[in-house]
Amino acid sequence: VIFCGNTSAARMFAQKREAKEQEMQDAAEESKDKARGARLAARLAGLELHSKWSEMEDTAHLESADGQDADGLLNFEPLPTDQAAAAPTLRLSINENDLLLGGLSCPALLPLRVIQLADLACITKLTLTEIEGISGLDLAMFMPLEGLEAVTVSACPSLNTLVMNTAMWEGGARWNLQQLDLSKNPMLKSLPLQAIADMPSVRELACSDCPNLWSPPQEVAAQGGKECIDFARAALKDGAVNTKMTLFLLGDGEAGKTSVFHALKSPNDTAGRIREDMRTVGIDMKDWHPEAGGSAVGASGGDGTLWFRVFDLAGQAVYEKTHQFLLLQRAVYMFVWRAFPLADNRHSVLMDRVRHWMDSLQLRVPGACVMLVVTHIDTVDAAVLDALCGVVRETVRTCLAAMRRTAPNGARLLSVLDGGESQRVNCLLGEGVAVLRKRLLDFARTMPWYGELLPSSLVSVREAVERLVREGKRHVHTAEWVQLCKKSGMDGLMLIVGTRFFHETGVVRFFGDYSTLAARGDDKAVIHLSAEFTVSVMKGLLRHDRQALQDYFVAKKKKRMLHRTNRFNATGRLHESLLPFLWPTTEASKAYWVWVRSQGQREADLWPEDVVGDMRDVHRALELLEGFDLLVRLKANDFSEILVPSALPPSRTQVSADAFAHDALLPFTASRTYPSLPAGAFQRIVVRVAGQANWSDFSTQRAVFSKLGNMATLALSDMAPSEAAEKCTMLRWRASNKQLRAMIAAAVDELERFFPGLHRSDTKEDTPTFAREPAQV
């Protein structure tokens, strides 16, 4: 048919043709969906799954004689009647091809009568959330849904085990699953990692915020789903077994931590007396292979592959602010305390220190594995020792009970060996040391990360780092780091994943932009390799006192430098001219260190070896301290002044007299309450906020900030216990505008991420109706 000039008729004909084609296309799609549904229905008809799903329609609980279903596809713990009645409201919805199931007290309560098999056949995304009572789940039960591309199982408070019975479903070969999200399941402990990794279609495995899941490591899971599945596949493909453990020795000064370690690694189980000038300053680090050779050290048995990296932490209070940066989740902790005569009446002090160390560990590394050791047992009789050990045991149990009351569901709590009983040793005579060594090795082998598979490329890089540190290398530029990693096979996405993993586990430290690693790095940013260098850098900033420096400037009549030293000690403001004097030895401070050592000052005992060689090393030290939020360089002053809130003496609790005079007039307020705050937490918040403000003043408990004419205050206060509450700590801040209030809130949020065991007991934010933000110019 030819139309000449009749454009209206031509348009009508074209529209009819398009409508007919659309109708045929719709019919084809409908036929395809029906056929797909029919195939699924036919397949389900021959499977136990079909009858099980049908049974769910009218059955409140699925149980066999042992409380589980016969086929193991669904394993759940039925809720008591009163809890089931209070369970969240059922949420079930189908949005195009997405199926959402939420708030179920048990999957058996799913009203599948509203879902037809044809509907299920079209499902591409399945989400199960907040399902209570379920402890185990077999992902294979969803495999008949061949169109399924994404499965989310999250926020299920009782779910602890996921399995995948792939034998029933042809190994998942026909399943096109691409995304599996298992995040935010607080009790989840195990995954069918091999089965998931064997499915080539899976591109993302999200399992972050699962505090009880060790494999894949949460340090990797936090990086993203693609990073996690790539790490898992690399580990399963050519992984190396991890037999290197980390051991931390904790306790107060002169408790005997160093003697315990010396005795543990001694062939005759003994340790000599330690002179006062040889006591631990900051942290001492050693490698220990307890089963090497045929000496008595290896007599405790085992396969001879266990290695320890030992961190002996100084017990002086001044170092508590820096210890937190070195504590690791994947470590064994040995808390050491010393016996004393009952006449000394130090019970309350001992109990306070036990609580302090238990709380400190739970805040930074919740769920840490701890064993207790008592030393100097020869100084008391057996009855007194039994009484002291009983006091410590009950204090530990009381601490754990308090943690259970305040921790959210699924939070990991400290795991204390033998319920808080202390291993008893006399290091001078070797009494109890062999038993302690065996208990330590047995305890270490129960750790979930002992014997785990790590990608062989990561193990090779870790060994290369250890070799470089032994050769005296402290840091490398990122360009050199990239070449080292590629040489060991850690390339592509694994280069970034592995570097982040090493940073989180303390192998290296990197505070730069990880994306630059993919671009081959550069010659400016550095990777810090040496933990010893890190510890020495922090020790130089926060050591006992600076009396030697003051004496030197007095002796040499350097009034300006003396003034700057006094100002630093009093206000926490460090002039950059003092930097070379913090660590030995640069050219600018060589005369000072020669003078210190010739005078026999205590300062000389703190530094048996040089830490820095030139100003480049000094700037590397500053980068580390900035990365740990221990200081901030003021940009407005061309970096001539550095704020170090952690260097303030405890006596400085107030800021300038008029700083809080109009505090109550600041309308935008917020507060957060915690059972306790770790040492140095307030100072880290100050560092983060001061780095963004135009001006600031601070003490150990208060701070005031100004930015673009706006004002904010921050205060830390302990709240005394009342009849209804235990002792707690409050952070309160006020601001003249919302931006400043949000800036402080962001700094507090970052602190909470660094301390995963820090849980709020109360949160408030108030904006009065009369509040008006000042005009911005």
Rg over CA atoms: 31 Å
Count up the helices.
24
* Major beta sheet summary: 7 strands, mixed
- Average predicted confidence as pLDDT: 81
The counted number of beta strands is 29
- Report the helical percentage: 25-40%
The backbone outline, from C-alpha atoms, is globular
**First-to-last CA distance:** 72 Å
Unreliable residue stretches: 1-5, 43-92, 104-119, 293-304
- Give the DSSP E fraction (strand runs of 2 or more residues): 15-25%
Backbone structural class: alpha/beta
Structure notes:
- This protein is of the alpha/beta class.
- Helix content is 36%, strand content 17%.
- It is built from 24 helices and 29 strands.
- Strands 11, 12, 13, 14, 15, 16 and 17 form a 7-stranded mixed beta sheet that branches. A 6-stranded mixed beta sheet has the order 2-3-4-6-8-9. Strands 25-26-27-28-24-29 form a 6-stranded antiparallel beta sheet, with helices on one face.
- The longest helix has 39 residues, at 7-45.
- The model is unreliable at 1-5, 43-92, 104-119 and 293-304 (pLDDT under 50).
